[in-house]
Write a structure and sequence with these properties.
It is a single chain. This protein has 71 residues and is of the alpha+beta class. It has one domain (3-69): Arc Repressor Mutant, subunit A (Orthogonal Bundle). The protein has helices spanning 6-13, 17-25, 45-59, 64-69, and strands at residues 3-4, 34-36, 40-44. It has a three-stranded antiparallel sheet with strand order 1-3-2. Helix 1 (6-13) packs across helix 2. The longest helix is centred in the C-terminal third of the chain and has 15 residues, at 45-59. The radius of gyration is 11 Å and the shape is globular.
Length: 71
């Protein structure tokens, strides 16, 4: 299992760290993540990939910016 922090996840999918944070904190269909302590967040790479594919399939979008803006 590969764990990514917010910055690594952002670099991996080509978006900003702010966008990844928005995905984590959204009310509907948040990005799965683990909290390590009070501030540290880790995202399992395979879960990130699955979440992106599922969201793209459900919305019909290919643009990651669209995923970040939808709440």
């Amino acid at each position: 299992m590969i764990y990514l922090n917010e910055s690594q996840a952002a670099e991996y999918v080509g978006v900003s760290k702010t966008t990844v944070h928005q995905w984590i904190t959204r009310k509907r269909h948040p990005l799965p993540h683990l909290r390590w302590g009070s501030r540290s967040v880790r995202i399992i790479q395979s879960e990130l990939e699955e979440w992106l594919e599922q969201y793209r399939a459900n919305t019909g979008t290919r643009r990651l910016v669209d995923i970040g803006g939808a709440r």
